[in-house]
Amino acid sequence: MLETPLRDMATLREMRILLVDDEPLNVALLDALLGDEGFTQVRSITDSRKVVAVCSEFVPDLILLDLMMPHLDGFAVMQRLAVLREPDEFMPIMVLTADITESTKKRALSAGATDFLTKPFDRTEAVLRISNLLRTRRMHVAIAAQNEQLEQKVSERTAKLEETLVELRATQQQVVQRERLSALGAMVTGIAHDFNNSLALILGYGELLQRECRRLSGSRDLTDYAQTIITAALDAAGTVSRLREFHRPSDEGGAQVPVSLSQLAEQSVAFTRPRWEAESHARGLPIEIHTECMATPPISGQAAELREMLTNLIFNAVDAMPQGGTITLRTYEGIDSVVLEVTDTGVGMTEEVRRRCLEPFFTTKGARGSGLGLAMVYGTVQRHRGEVEIESKPGRGTTFQFTFPIDTSGEQAVDTPDVAAPKPLRILVVDDQPVLCEVLAESLTRDWHTVEVATNGREALEKFEAGEFDLVITDKAMPEMNGDQLAAAVKVRRPEVKVVMLTGFGEFEEGEEIESEFIDFLLPKPATMVEVRNAIGRVMGAAIGITA
Ligand code: ADP
Ligand code: MG
Q1: How far apart are CA 527 and CA 389, in angstroms?
Q2: What is the pLDDT of residues 295-330, one digit of tens each?
Q3: What is the pTM of this model?
Q4: Does residue 520 register a pLDDT over 60?
């Protein structure tokens, strides 16, 4: 802060000086002196008891203080001013003295005096000392202002750092969660595979047992027992199948087509209406669902899967609003993406629940919940190369925000054709597990189909070449010649023969291509007879491409 001497003096003369002396003559003298020297802001008082009040209003830069005064002497005044002063503030006090003793000087210094001016005043000395004190005061004020600025900057930086730290923690949490989910996914795939094979047997024999019971004994009890076995196995298969939704490579579910999230959101509201309207009436509390859907560009995906995802989210939101409330489905275009938000005004989640809610089997609903809804949602998001973020606070509702990349093909989605009714067929069933083969063959035979079985690819091909078939149902994983190779061999010989392939869970590696040209339908194991019939209906009814 470099100043010319002229400017320096000019600013000093604008600083505030307070004059305290009980002797009016002294006051007049000093007042005149300061006025002559160009000081414009001078205030004087003769009653020292007013110093504190004047200081808080006038805020002097320098006090010229007499020591010997009635009522309140200079020492008492300094004591009171010391209380008023900020800890780091430099408030110069120049004591006006006649001739005083050394000990009085010391006492004045320790009471807070900065300098002395001896009466009668030498004009030049007085102006010099006053100017010096004012200059020092001015520097202190400037430094204090600078310090304040620095402190402000430091606290801004600290706030920013804290913000970054919070963001970092959130990202770290996300990474940890992603890792945990992917480890769980791997485990789930393994378990699902083994469970499925067992369930296929239980289901198959359950169905056979039931038919035999009906045919032979006609016993209601036995038929019901068998039905219980079938129902339990189907339930378990359903759980396994939903679990599998949580971790299924994107290429296993069939082709992805351009779909409109906005349209799906509207459809899902209509689709779930019976449930939330029923809940709403049952509780006598209103549940409202709003959609705020923009005309968004299509994303690449599977309509059925996305609809299922939305259904899950809506049901969760309904569950979270025991007192009623509002659910809002919102879609809009983001940066190269379509954003979908599902917001409810429900009970919200604690931080712990929010972090774990995507995990399979995580539920806070006890026996009422399966904990698979959001795991399935997560799987769907993954397969659609999307991202999910959850914002929730207890008592403040929840928002699920999804971001999906925009589809780049520029095509329109096509509806799946209807299922055609089955007619008697010549079918070759191939599975390296004779039991499974047998179960399937028996059931198909009862549906009036003609069935031959083979327990390996080579045997199957021999039988295929020797006979006449409309359809081959084959397992995928078999030693020597696997299902894919068999399908290829079949299609080379007789392209019009349909091939349905049964796959256990996890038999598709991520990124593996499905041999779509040789396979007409993929059927996940364990398939119930209803599913097998549907599959047959579809491949025989219409020449549709690969789907699952
Ligand atoms: P389920 O609904 O069977 O419990 P989900 O996987 O669908 O399983 O959900 C897991 C858990 O996440 C729920 O039990 C609940 O605690 C929490 N949750 C999910 N959606 C919401 C929501 N909209 N509001 C509050 N909590 C929710
Ligand atoms: Mg749920």
Answers
A1: 35
A2: 889 999 888 788 889 988 999 999 999 999 999 999
A3: 0.53
A4: yes
CA atoms within a 13 Å half-sphere pointing along the CA-CB vector of 228: 6
Ligand 1 pocket member 343 (CB < 6 A): no
Q: Reply yes or no on whether the pLDDT at 248 is more than 70.
A: no
CB count within 10 Å of CB 369 equals: 14
- Residue 398's beta-bridge partner residues? 344, 392
CA-nearest residue, atom 17 of ligand 1: 357
What is the Cα–Cα distance from 40 to 43, expressed in whole angstroms? 9
Ligand 1 centroid – CA 321 distance (Å): 11
Residues 6+ apart with CB under 8 A from 272: 311, 314, 315
**pLDDT at residue 416, rounded to an integer:** 34
Query: Mean pLDDT of all residues in the chain?
Result: 85
d(CA 472, CA 469): 7
pLDDT of residue 421: 34
CA neighbor of 13 nearest in space, from 122, 130, 144: 130
Q: How many Å apart are CA 351 and CA 393, to the nearest integer?
A: 7
Distance CA(250)–CA(132), nearest Å, equals 81
369 within ligand 1 shell (Cβ under 6 A): yes
What is the 370 CA–ligand 2 centroid distance (Å)? 7
Phi and psi based region of residue 448 (left: phi greater than 0; alpha: psi -120 to 50; beta: remaining): left
What was the pLDDT predicted at 349? 97
- Any ligand 1 atom below 6 A from CB of 346: yes
Residue linked to tokens 């409810």: 344
CB 537 within 8 Å of CB 495: no
Distance 503 CA to ligand 2 centre (A): 28
Q: What's the pLDDT score for residue 59?
A: 94
Ligand closest to the CA atom of residue 347: 1
Pocket lining: 362 vs ligand 1, CB cutoff 6 Å: yes
45-74 pLDDT tens trace:
999 999 999 999 999 999 999 999 999 999
Query: First CA to last CA across the chain, in angstroms?
Result: 80
Query: Which residue minimizes the CA distance to atom 12 of ligand 1?
Result: 357
Q: Identify the nearest ligand to the CA of 317 by its number.
A: 1
What would the pLDDT profile of 163-175 be if each residue is shown by its tens digit? Answer: 999 999 888 878 8
C-alpha 135 to ligand 2 mean position (Å): 74
User: Which ligand 1 atom minimizes the distance to the CA of 357?
Assistant: 12
Does 398 sit in the ligand 1 pocket, CB within 6 Å?
Answer: yes
- CB of 320 closer than 6 angstroms to any ligand 1 atom: yes
- For residue 266, the one-letter residue type is E
Nearest atom in ligand 1 to the alpha carbon of residue 364 is 14
Q: Which two tokens stand for residue 360?
A: 């399979």
Pairing of strands 257-259, 299-301: antiparallel
